[in-house]
C-alpha cells in the first residue's frame, strides 16, 4: 500500500511571507513547477484555487529564486 508522506503544504502567500519575497513575483518564478517538483493546487468553492508547496517544493522554489536573482532575464526568456 502506498502511503503519502506529505503531511502539510504551505500556500504561496505563506511561503512568500516566510521567504521575504513578493507573492506575485514568486508566482511567476514558480509557475513552471510541476507536481514532481513539490507544487500542488488547492481548490476551493467555485473558481477559488491557490498554489501550495510541500517541504520539497519549498526547497526547489528556493533554488529557483536563487537562479532568478542571479539572472533576472530568466523570467523574460521563459515568458516568450
Largest sheet: 3 strands, antiparallel
What fraction, in percent, of the residue positions are helical? 40-55%
Taking strands numbered 1, 2, ... along the chain, how are they ordered across the largest sheet? 1-3-2
What is the tally of beta strands?
3
Write up this protein.
The N and C termini lie far apart (43 Å). This protein has a three-stranded antiparallel beta sheet with strand order 1-3-2. It is globular. 12% of the residues are buried. It has helices spanning 12-19, 23-30, 55-70, 74-78, and strands spanning 10-11, 39-43, 49-53. The chain has 80 residues and is of the alpha+beta class. It contains four helices and three strands; from the N terminus they run βααββαα.
Give a short overview.
The chain is an alpha+beta fold and 80 residues long. Helix content is 46%, strand content 15%.
Helices and strands in order:
Layout: E1 10-11, H1 12-19, H2 23-30, E2 39-43, E3 49-53, H3 55-70, H4 74-78
Antiparallel strand pairs: 1-3, 2-3
Amino acid at each position: 500500500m502506498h502511503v503519502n508522506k506529505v503531511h502539510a503544504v504551505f500556500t504561496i502567500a505563506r511561503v512568500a511571507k516566510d521567504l521575504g519575497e513578493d507573492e506575485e513575483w514568486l508566482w511567476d518564478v514558480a509557475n513552471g513547477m510541476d507536481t514532481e517538483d513539490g507544487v500542488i493546487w488547492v481548490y476551493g468553492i467555485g473558481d477559488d484555487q491557490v498554489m501550495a508547496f510541500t517541504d520539497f517544493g519549498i526547497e526547489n522554489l528556493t533554488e529557483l529564486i536563487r537562479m532568478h536573482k542571479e539572472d533576472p532575464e530568466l523570467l523574460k526568456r521563459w515568458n516568450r
